[in-house]
Amino acid sequence: MNKTHNIKKSDKHEGIAGSQTPFFYKKEVILELDLLNAVFDDIRIPLVVVNNALEILKVNSAASAMFGKDYLTLAELAPAIHPHVLSFKTAHKLSVRLPHIHVDKRCVDLQITQLSNDCIMVAIYDVTKEFSLSTQLRQAQKMETVGQLATGVAHDFANVLTVIGGFADIANKKLTEHPAAQYIEHIYNSAKKGNSMIRGLLAFSRRGESDHHITNVSLLVKSIVDMAGHMLRSDVHIVVNLFEGDLQVMADSVQIEQVILNLFTNAQDAMPKGGKIEVQTGVLQNEDSNDFVYIKVIDEGVGMDSRLIDQIFEPFFTTKPPHKGTGLGLAMVKEIVEHHSGKISCQSTVGVGTTFTIFLPVVMVTPWR
Q1: Which one, out of 80, 149, 285, 322, has a CA that is 20 to 30 A from the CA of 105?
Q2: Do residues 264 and 231 touch, judged by C-beta distance below 8 A?
Q3: Structural domain for 48, as ranges
């Protein structure tokens, strides 16, 4: 890559008749060149001038600040620029704009302008923030679409389950002594459970009403652990370390159940060879008296690096294969926790494991005596 240089100041300038330019003309040209170089350098848009071989002839200060003194990262622009260098010759174009070119962890728009037959100027517009906001907007629109779809399907499915549960309840009452009564009761309980899940789905789409009431977190977690024992693989076991007392919060127990079961499932998936999941509950006391009940789910899985931790709560982001994950699980978890005026955090170390901590505003804490 050639060393950058300014526009060359010529000592001679040939006039129309071929005679040497008078001294005052030469001085005027030098001043104009100095002014041109100063303006070029002061323009806040990064500008790079290259020849047809894409060798750098000149850069301004804004380009230097963006790419550094050696400009090596500019080589990443070559694949995007080169086809248009050819088009200037064949199609007689003077300028072209290329949107969303990724270079040096940035997203840039390029404006390529032909200055002469063998000289091209590239204006570089850093649109990283705009591109990021646009991506977030598209994700939000996806979530809105999913929410609308989920709401319609959930309502229809809830009606079907209501009918199934209703008839199962009637049959169970009329066939109390029948051998099939226990199976009918399973049908009824499953329909009831399905309705509870739909309520959670509607809450996630922000169109359902939550049933918030005073809930004892330790007792709720214990019942969820008992239920999860039948769901998890045989090589995964749960260790419980609960606060010895009543931890009361205002919550929808069905939604909190969804949150914890989702974290259990993720912990199991992170331990393909089996392992331990530890569940802890307790109280986080603050000096400003805004105390929180916490629920921790700790696994011994593969762990995550900081890059993944920054993305795990994003809708549709998943590290699982397409047939195993939708990328909505942890997004739903975060949505539910924040709907309870709470927070969720994640700490993880690659090769060691992951800890998810849920914080919920406390209503009352009563230690057992």
Answers
A1: 322
A2: yes
A3: 23-126
| Amino acid (1-letter code) at residue 113 | T
Q: Are 66 and 76 in contact (CB under 8 A)?
A: no
Q: Helix %, strand %, coil % for the chain, to 5?
A: 45, 25, 30
Supply the Cα-derived Rg of the chain in whole angstroms: 33
Its sign, for the CA torsion 73, 78, 80, 84, is: positive
Which residue among 126, 143, 175 closes a domain? 126
Q: Which two tokens stand for residue 178?
A: 């029948």
Helix (H) or strand (E) run with residue 335 in it: helix 329-339
Q: What is the pLDDT of residues 113-143, one digit of tens each?
A: 888 777 888 888 888 888 878 877 887 777 7
pLDDT digits (tens, 9 = 90+) for 148-191: 776 777 778 888 888 898 888 888 888 878 888 888 888 888 88
Domain count, the chain: 3
CA pair distance 243, 239, nearest whole angstrom: 13
Overall residue count recorded for the chain in this entry: 369
CA-based angle 318:103:61, to the nearest 5? 140
Confirm if 262 and 330 have CB atoms less than 8 A apart. yes
